[in-house]
Amino acid sequence: MSTPTSTLKSCIPFPLEEDQLVEVVEKAKDWAIMHGAAMRSKQDFNPDALQFAPFILTPSSFPRVEFQKAVNLQPVLNELIHTVAHDSAFLFDTLKSTVKVDDFTRSLIEIYRTVLDEGITQPVSLGLLRSDLMLETRCDNICSERVNPLNAYCCWKQVEINTIASGFGHLGPSSKYLQSYILTELGYRDKLVNLPENKALSGLCDAMVEAWKLQNRPDAAILFVVEDVTYNICDQRFHEFYIRSTYPHVPVVRRTLTEIQRAGRLGTERELLLALKEGEPAVEVSVVYFRAGYEPGHYHGADEWAARLLVERSRAIKCPSIQYHLAGTKKVQQALARPDVLRRFVGADEAKIDAIRDVFTGLYSLDPDEGGAEAVALAKANPERFVLKPQREGGGNNVYGADIPTALDAMTPDERSAWILMERIFPPLSTGYMIRPGGPTPPPLVQLVSELGIFGAVIGTKDKILYNKQVGHMLRTKLSTANEGGVAAGLGALDSPYLID
Which among 239, 220, 242 has a CA at the least distance from the CA of 316? Predict the structure, then answer.
């Protein structure tokens, strides 16, 4: 990886004295575990034990103007994705090459075709989205006139937008509280004013309950669809705990796709009924929140796919509905980067078009009939400029830099249709201490790069949006030498933005 050289100034002076550093790290680890900034270990899994999630000791600097710009843009992106998700012709056409070579996307499309042919039972969808972005340091002719006086960045660009299992609604806010505690312990309580308010947990959960209220079925439950083994347990359970605490009349249940297939059925009015205990009446589910189902490993066979179809055929409000899931694929993201396609969904509102296009980085199709050969040539000529992305969520699936030519050569032209090529973003560096389970004591001072996620919530039908909000944020930070940065995947660390002017 070509390491960026531009640097954002740290919020406090470094390095810390060793005795002070060791003491505050010990306190911070305990605080994290005791306040749910934690996960189960993948390496030594024990359902009865937690370890703190990796975190950055102090918040990373982020320009206030760019943070606010991202916050303001989120409702526009919510509306865009909602509109895209309800254009079946566009989704089918955009993914027609991908489904030929990608079994997972093809299975999703088959479910979508089935429910369209039967008639959509539930016209309302709930979208809990997260738009991920990074600051860009390489200024081209378009944005060079906007270079920040600090010369640390020129703008921000969108990495992707997530439409299923958009995580860290709890861990995002908890990072702020953890780092607020650390700054206070270090004698920098005056810095807390520059940590923006973050109500991601309540914002996401409130939107689920708004969808539940729309159904007007007071005895129905919200169903969390979860993995067979949940490592990122705090980030899921705190959503459940918040709902049960704030809305005690709203039941919440958790089930895997396998369990839904075994115990689920449709009622006479296509209500989703779930038998929780043998011999007891089934519970109706009126809202389904997917925290699993976004990758092939969650579907062990026909039963899990049947469960996904069962949910889609029901009158429950889905988060996401199958069309929302498809709208979040990388191929759709690449198609939206084309001005003519974007205009199809945004209409004649030039201000919105400009605002959205401004944050898109270069995205290229690898389809043979969409200039794929030219994109392949670009990638091979200068692979360090690009990232190769498949139609997957969850992190750890991308191909970077020098590995790209080999990966492309191993694919047939048709197989490349399951991937897109994206121009790589080179963010500015920051400096800090990364605290990891089993890490060195004292931790070394390291160079870092960050990715900001802005959460959005949207509820509506094909013809009308009923609810549209920006509801919080999260920050993930990784070593500047690392490619992937997922915290749940063990590659990044929790962080929060420290806003600078």
Answer: 220
What the block records as the tokens of 365 is 């199709």
Of 120, 207, 102, whose CA–CA distance to 455 is shortest? 207
Please, which residues have CB within 8 angstroms of residue 222's CB and are 6 or more apart in sequence? 208, 209, 212, 243, 250, 251, 252, 253, 285, 286, 287, 288, 289
43: Cβ–Cβ under 8 A, 6 or more apart, which residues?
none
Place of tokens 């199958």: 322
Please give the structure tokens belonging to residue 460: 């509506």
Cα–Cα distances (Å) from 239 to 210, 229, 293, in that order, read 14, 17, 18
Work out the number of other CB atoms within 10 angstroms of the CB of residue 460. 21
pLDDT for 313-328, tens place per residue?
A: 999 999 999 999 999 9
From the CB of residue 148, how many other CB atoms can be counted at a distance below 10 Å?
18
Q: Is 443 helix (H, G, I), strand (E, B) or coil?
A: coil
Q: What is the 3-state secondary structure (H, E, C) of 276-289?
A: CCCCCCCEEEEEEE
* DSSP for residue 143: T
**What three-state secondary structure class fits 63?**
strand
Quick one: how many helices (H) and strands (E) in the chain?
16, 21
Length of the chain: 501
- List the one residue out of 141, 161, 78 whose CA is nearest residue 352: 78
What's the whole-number average pLDDT of the chain?
93
Angle between helices 64-85 and 350-357 (to 10 degrees): 110
Rg over alpha carbons for the chain, rounded to the nearest Å, is 22
Nearest to 366 by CA among 324, 322, 414: 414
**CA-to-CA distance for 173 and 271, rounded, in angstroms?**
35
User: Which residue(s) pair with 420 in the sheet?
Assistant: 365, 389
pLDDT value of residue 391: 77
